[in-house]
């Protein structure tokens, strides 16, 4: 086995399916032994990715020890769980090629996935796989392009070759900060775009929101060392467009429910919610203005109503674009 995917949510499962179609033997770790056994037996993940069939060369287990022969390990656990997960398993994971497949900023530390990996597993080679893709599309074998970011160029080239498939095209960069910040911050703007949609403010308002959202994503990301071309690429602009315009996105749907004053299933993974708060703290320390993100954090925290948030954004001083 050369590849293991740790985390059998929608995305981890979809990646395991796609990589197995390349002919590789792929390991898929689920934290719940009963869930792992059911997937191994039924060749399906009805809990997280209904409708996708696991190829025979995917082995599912709840024992990380079963996958330690893998040379490349994909980490597909939610962002706010990554730090604890790595600390629990650092003995097994340090020194390996670890590819984060999550999007967000850790609320406790203000770090992105690559820095979280580097701190927990200092001998590992960290990378991140991110960009515009819905798990269901990847599992169906629809064409998809993602960004693979790794600071070590040789490791990045090897990962690009190993993790690309005929329909899953990876573009390479060494700019890990740009890749992870684009993926993290676009989820926040997608919540805001959902609010605009749910509150019935119109498509013109959504286009304005996405554009000003991209401006503030870029402002914060550049201050944190990201490169402009990465923000303009798949992991930034590309994923912003996808997530702000599709009802397949959980962040967008969560925002729609907020905007319409409707309930939303609290067990759904909505990475932008915690990241709005984490990004607001980071930007506040650096005196960087990210008004949409701060408003999303205030809305999610229940500190403002939707009409108050809209009024606050519309009454900001007029300025140069
Ligand atoms: N879904 C998508 O289309 C895409 C998702 N992503 C990113 O992938 C990451 C994972 O999302 P996704 O797979 O969709 O999430 P899901 O909601 O589908 O699944 C979450 C997964 O995380 C597991 N999990 C929850 N808590 C812990 C924990 N404490 N330790 C270890 N595992 C835990 C869950 O296990 P259990 O089932 O037992 O609860 C489940 O396997 C996110 O950062 C997301 O932004 C990126 C691109 C596309
Ligand atoms: O990151 C994604 C698309 O690239 C998935 O979006 P959601 O997490 O909002 O569903």
TrEMBL record:
E.C. number: 1.1.1.94
Pfam families in UniProt: NAD_Gly3P_dh_C, NAD_Gly3P_dh_N
Active site: 186
Binding site for sn-glycerol 3-phosphate: 103, 131, 133, 186, 239, 249-251
Keywords: Cytoplasm, Lipid biosynthesis, Lipid metabolism, NAD, NADP, Nucleotide-binding, Oxidoreductase, Phospholipid biosynthesis, Phospholipid metabolism
Domain Glycerol-3-phosphate dehydrogenase NAD-dependent C-terminal: 175-310
InterPro entries documented for this protein: 6-PGluconate_DH-like_C_sf, 6PGD_dom2, G3P_DH_NAD-dep, G3P_DH_NAD-dep_C, G3P_DH_NAD-dep_N, NAD(P)-bd_dom_sf
Pathway annotation from the record: Membrane lipid metabolism; glycerophospholipid metabolism
Reaction catalyzed: sn-glycerol 3-phosphate + NADP(+) = dihydroxyacetone phosphate + NADPH + H(+); sn-glycerol 3-phosphate + NAD(+) = dihydroxyacetone phosphate + NADH + H(+)
Enzyme class: oxidoreductase
Binding site for NADPH: 11, 31, 103, 135, 250, 270-271
Domain Glycerol-3-phosphate dehydrogenase NAD-dependent N-terminal positions: 3-154
Entry's localization field: Cytoplasm
Function per UniProt: Catalyzes the reduction of the glycolytic intermediate dihydroxyacetone phosphate (DHAP) to sn-glycerol 3-phosphate (G3P), the key precursor for phospholipid synthesis.
Membership in a protein family: Belongs to the NAD-dependent glycerol-3-phosphate dehydrogenase family.
PANTHER family according to UniProt: GLYCEROL-3-PHOSPHATE DEHYDROGENASE, GLYCEROL-3-PHOSPHATE DEHYDROGENASE [NAD(+)] 2, CHLOROPLASTIC
Protein name: Glycerol-3-phosphate dehydrogenase [NAD(P)+]
